[in-house]
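Input chain follows. Return structure tokens only.
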Amino acid sequence: MTGAVAQRSVGLGALCVLAASVLWGTTGTAATFAPGVGPLAIGAVAMGLGGLLQALIAAPLITRHAPALRARRGTVLLGALAVAVYPLAFYSSMRLAGVAVGTVVSIGTAPLASALIERAVDRRHLTRRWKLGAALGLTGTVLLCLAEAVHAPAPGGPDGRSVAGTLLGVGLGLIAATTYALYSWTAHRLITDGIPSRAAMGAVFGVGGLLLVPVLLLTGAPLLASWSAAAVGAYMALVPMFAGYVLFGWGLAHVPASTATTLSLLEPAVAAVLAVLVVGERLPAVGWAGVALVVACLAVLTAPGRRPAVRGRGARVETAVAERIRDASPS
């Protein structure tokens, strides 16, 4: 494969992840149109139905690659369990600790969790470029959190949150970050082992969706209480979760999981901007500075770079089209 073709493939992979992040960034704003629906129901309908739809669309490919998937059933089940836990922890974290803190902890720490997983399993090393990009993104996300915290109710107040509830929300956010990194890594591992992205994502998210069905049956009644709540549930399942994770799967075919999770730091920036434009919230200067740092992070990670030396098992199984972007990630 020529260098020009490889560069286009890598660029397309990065754009797919960024497009998915934009879709994910709409979930917080969408949820405001269904205030009576609990976080477990939101998470279950979004990831559960979205995952089952992915499996349905990818059914022919999953059937064709069933022997390879069965041979890697441990990886599939690990990813599916992470898929089932992630939305429950993520939306509960936002409900307990607030949208800003919950998003920052869940999305902002996922690149670090992903890097640790790749370092422990694939023997990757953190490059200076990846560290710079991650530092810019994390700093920008924290500034967004501080910007929202300025307008948040005081803890313990009539509309505020208890310290215990906030701490629990932070803990759930760390669980969400770990599971997000884990299912991203498992999907990437399946793809680099030769399974098409649609089959890999369909299998992992389909089994994860099945695990979420009981949660949806137990908590999903408010989704049917009004047309607006049902519309929010349908939107969550079809757009950010189904379409978003199809795009994310395409991206994982060309970039490592650690780079993909770092690129997804665009999500909280999109969420903050939509909160201003749609919900009517105000974003102070420090928040806009955070958005600028997230954009700088994306520029660092997606700019052309040299080809790094191949190291370790994880690097050996990378496809040739991913080589250029690997110096922006653990490699």
